[in-house]
Amino acid sequence: MADCVSGVWGAALALPKNGQHPPTYSGVNILLLWDALFARSYERNFWLIFKQALALGGAVRKGETGTIAVYADSFIPKKEQQSNWIRFPDCRDKKPDDWIRGVTEQDRLRRILTFVCISVYDNVSYIWRYFIKTEWRDGMPSSRPYPVLVALIVAAMVLGARPTAAAVTVEQYHVHDFAFKAHVNGNPFDIDLRGEFTGPSGVRVTVPGFYDGDDTWKIRFSPSTPGNWTMRTISTVPALNNHAEDAITATANTDKAVHGRLLVDAFNPYHFVYEDGTRYFLMGYEADWLAEADMKDPNRTVMHHLIDQIAARGFNHVITNVFAYDTSWSKGNQNQWDYGPPAMYVFGGTNEHPDHAVLNTNYFKIYDDMIQALQDKGIVADIMLKVYNKGVNWPAPGSKEEERYYRYVTARYQAYSNVVWAFSKEEFNEPNKVLEKSLIERIRETDGYHHLTTTHTDGAFTWDPQLGSNVVDFDLDQEHGAYWPQKPAFERALRQRPYLNSELYYEIGVDDLPTYPPRNSWQEMIRGAYNVYLSGGYFAYYYGNTAWDLVKPDPEPPGMAPMQILKDNLSALPYWKMEPKPELALGGPCLATPGEVYACYVAPLPPRPAPPVSANAKGPPLQTRRPNPPLPRGGEIVLNLTGLKGSATLRWVNTWTGDHVDAGVDRPAVYTLRRPESFGMAPALLIVKSAQPG
């Protein structure tokens, strides 16, 4: 290019010609052959291909080499013959508006550039003769416009090349939406659209698309591995079929809150781990109405405030519904914090007059915002796809409309790394267990990312090996009856999978507003949480003023800070290696790796009352009989530490304030250990660690 502009190639330079056929070479071949002409000091600007030379009786001298020339023609690759790409000659007689309408942005760009290319091609001689005003003599241009000639050649090369879509860059474990436009007859929610993604080392994932309204379909993608990915669409609709993205770059995850999908730890099956190997100490929060709170507020102020509050206290697992309508204990909008019934319905029509054949895409766009906000804070969304007793007018069980709903929700949210699927809330209400299994299997088949699936409070399903054994990855329970202290051990013995009690107590709100009738103190909530965790399970916090349609985060629930104290102390232990060991402790639950680390809950005991004395008993008069001395205001625990190899450290933690007192033991033995009196009425967490390395 520099030689051309500076005039090194000469003023009287002719266009390269074929020695057998008069037409001149064109395009990039002009530059290639000019360069060879001067580099090799050829005298004439005529060229032949090898076969032409042989046909004319010529030969090639020993040691001579050829010069590269490019042959170009238009064709439609097989993989694109069914796509929206318009063949080059076919669009000459079309107006631009006729063939850029109703296609994707990528195809629209390709077609516009093709139109420009055709215009340049058809009018290049006109531009040359009348705007650059160069005279042609015997097929040779005059000397003036060589820089302009080169610029036109380069422009023709750029515009004549098949345009490609801009490269896509997306961070590992984060989502990117590929959008496609098409107009179809019939129900757009029944259109089959899939994206086949291929990544580093041949990893493949097939992701279903979903309809998002306004003749738009989306395929939502999240790369599991950094590197280069490609995508190809598959659909029965020609306008959606065979779109390709060949330049998807997945960069390594830099978000400290995001760690990929939640998995069951293969080596410690009662516990969880993230996809990137980070451990996951589950501390749940029930917020069933989270997506439906303040739906009319474009800023979603209440929703974001509650999520921020939840995250700040260390909760990392939110149990929430896709949709609920209203509660039986507080019907209608009784105050400004009561969001039931919600402002939008999940299907077409209304809850009273539904159109179950379609989904309300505007509702799901708001739900998108909630899932994204949770992911930004590193919180897993435990999505309950259905709820039976909250006034929702659902499609008929087993109907096409019901299956479409389950398929749609799964397709829309599976790319988010922070989701797990629950068939429904309180699915013991589903009488047809075969249908229940069938729908869970459909979720698992549709989900290309293979997120965890569970059921909520349905022992009849999960305990049956013919039903729940292959479709339930962890137990999501709601146990607040007489057996809740024994339930974690029972479930652990039955199946090797994590256990989560999501609804034990119901903490009363600071503001006593209409909500679910049970009223438990925050102290009861904390006691229950420690008992579940130290029995080998996980726990979810339930606050009456944010759990259902009543969503009033302020003032902060008093139980949240003690829950953070619990997580800070227990998650710092090698909890995934510790087992419930009730046989090692008298006086409270105990989680331990014997000989290495122990964690026990020690509750205070009331003063011991004096034994009853008969009025006829011998001895001093009743009013002067001295009772047995009461125990100090503090409980005690008898702990079998004979598995120690030597001395150990003891830490007593006040479960209400986080204050701690340190002590120790000097040898293996059975110890009676008393909670510090300075804790008052607060229960204690006792942590014992061996002083000898494992």
Please characterize this protein's 3D structure:
The protein has 694 residues and is α/β, with parallel strands linked by helices. The radius of gyration is 37 Å and the shape is globular. An 8-stranded parallel beta sheet has the order 22-21-20-17-16-25-24-23, with helices on one face. It has a 6-stranded antiparallel beta sheet with strand order 26-28-29-34-31-32, with helices on one face. Helix 9 runs parallel beside helix 10 (433-446).
What is the percent of helical residues? 10-25%
Low-confidence segments, given as residue ranges, are 80-106, 121-150, 156-164, 613-633
Rough shape? globular
- Our Rg estimate from Cα atoms comes to 37 Å
Query: How many separate helices?
Result: 14
Percent range for β-strand residues: 15-25%
- State the oligomer: single chain
SS-based class? alpha/beta
pLDDT averaged over residues: 84
**How does the major sheet shape up?**
8 strands, parallel
Query: Can you count the beta strands?
Result: 34
- What's the end-to-end separation, in Å? 72 Å
As laid out across the biggest beta sheet, the strand order is 22-21-20-17-16-25-24-23
